[in-house]
UniProtKB/TrEMBL annotation:
Residues covered by the Glycosyltransferase subfamily 4-like N-terminal domain: 99-212
Gene3D superfamilies found in the cross-reference section: Glycogen Phosphorylase B
The name this protein goes by in its record: Colanic acid/amylovoran biosynthesis glycosyltransferase
One function term, GO molecular function aspect: glycosyltransferase activity
Xref: InterPro entries: Glyco_trans_1, Glyco_trans_4-like_N, Glycosyltransferase_grp1
Keyword Ligase: no
Organism: Christiangramia gaetbulicola
Domain Glycosyl transferase family, first and last residues per copy: 218-386
Domain of life of the source: Bacteria
Length: 406
């Protein structure tokens, strides 16, 4: 019988977390039984990965993490007392958990009862470190027998997390009880080490992409406009405004360019207003939310990928940037800022160019170089495809995940 992996996430499926879906699919392809434990189930029909959900029957794997705690205080305590008696065999673990936790409330009894059915599951794979509760506590007190694997993705290592969780030893128990701590780039590994994670437990495994979904694009003939593209959530960290400013400078220099911005997010109004202010309506197109097949189509008919991510006002940076690998898989050269883990997602001066964060002059110059040199675009695109096949394909990472799960 194959092992069972429970992926623990928060809200699912979130539009911006395709990499979580990719990891679930990879585990299924490896032959593991998969369950997805979520605190809140979002509308699946509206998700960009609907085709993947259907193909791998992911919706059938979802379990809602609902402790079924009565809202009425009296009934809450009555039911809690019943559950405590029901779980009398686990009293030593419950006692330890109450000793270990700072928040001593009745919810812990409900959590013990809920997780009882998962006590001997082979692996808990926590996606984002801040989704650890109460798995780290239940493991620490000896209740859970499962191996714990944690994938960190970026914002979960920048304190205060979500502007509210301070670093007061927040991950100490998780670091101690986990079998493996997964970083998607050397950049995130360094962040883990700075927070006191044991180096022996850290494994660098990038988010894999299915190369069969991507193909090398066809080059355009001379005289046709150059299509630039950025794909990602529309927010401060993704930095699309720097791409807009770069297009403004390119248009002033007389270049015939079209900039495609794909994605949705809370910064859409500001970005649209910036386009209007700079009178770039004829040169910039907002595509909104796109599904994986639409991403492939957009990349196929583009010429240069702009990775515009920068450090945001909270000090957070891009940890990997999966779409950079996807663009290279489609044969696009990349122009990016040297931010966070982005430099690890391309080969500098072979598959793309790097500029210091927010250096628009450099950014424009590198785009201009690629516009003027069709052969360089072709060569860099070929180098990028080769780089991705070696470092980001499912084939290149599958052995590492087998070792972690095995």
């Amino acid at each position: 019988m194959s092992k069972t992996i429970i992926f623990k996430v928060w809200k699912f499926p979130k539009l911006s977390e395709t990499f979580v879906v990719n990891q679930i699919v990879l585990a299924k392809k490896l032959g593991y039984q998969v369950k997805v434990l979520v605190e809140e189930v979002l509308e699946i029909k509206e998700n960009a990965n609907l085709d993947i959900f259907k193909q791998f029957k992911i919706a059938d794997s979802i379990i809602l993490e609902d402790y079924d705690i009565p809202k009425n205080r009296i009934w809450r305590w009555i039911k809690g007392a019943f559950l405590l008696f029901k779980n009398i065999v686990y009293w030593p673990g419950i006692y330890k958990a109450f000793r270990f936790t700072k928040k001593k409330n009745i919810q812990l009894i409900y959590q013990f009862d809920f997780y009882r059915k998962f006590r001997n599951i082979d692996i808990f794979h926590i996606q984002f470190g801040n989704n650890k509760n109460p798995v780290d506590l239940l493991k620490k007190c000896g209740f859970l027998k499962s191996n714990i694997v944690v994938s960190f993705h970026g914002h979960d290592l920048f304190f205060p997390i979500n502007n509210r969780i301070p670093n007061n030893g927040y991950y100490n128990d998780l670091f101690a009880c986990s079998s493996y701590l997964i970083a998607n780039t050397p950049f995130l590994k360094q962040k883990l080490l700075e927070l006191g994670a044991p180096e022996s437990k850290i494994k660098i495994i990038p988010v894999a992409i299915d190369l069969d979904l991507f193909c090398n694009k066809k080059l355009k003939g001379p005289g046709e406009e150059i299509k630039l593209i950025t794909i990602g959530r529309l927010d401060e960290l993704k930095g699309q405004k720097y791409g807009i400013h770069a297009v403004y400078d390119l248009v002033k220099k007389g270049y015939d360019v079209r900039y495609i911005i794909a994605g949705s997010g809370n910064n859409i109004s500001n970005l649209r207003q910036k386009v209007i202010e700079l009178k770039l309506e004829k040169h910039i197109v907002f595509k909104g939310m796109v599904n994986p097949s639409e991403v492939v189509k957009l990349l196929k008919y583009s010429d240069i990928f702009l990775m515009t991510s920068v450090r945001n006002s909270r000090g957070e940076v891009e940890s990997q940037g999966l779409v950079t690998a996807e663009a290279q898989a489609c044969g696009l050269p990349v122009v990016a800022f040297r931010s966070g883990g982005v430099p690890h997602t391309l080969e500098e001066d072979r598959s793309g160019f790097l500029c210091e964060e927010k250096d628009i002059t450099c950014f424009v110059s590198k785009i201009e170089t690629l516009i003027l040199d069709k052969e360089l675009r072709k060569t860099m695109g070929e180098n990028g495809r080769e780089f991705v096949e070696k470092n980001f394909s499912e084939k290149s990472v599958i052995a590492r995940w087998n070792k972690v799960y095995g």
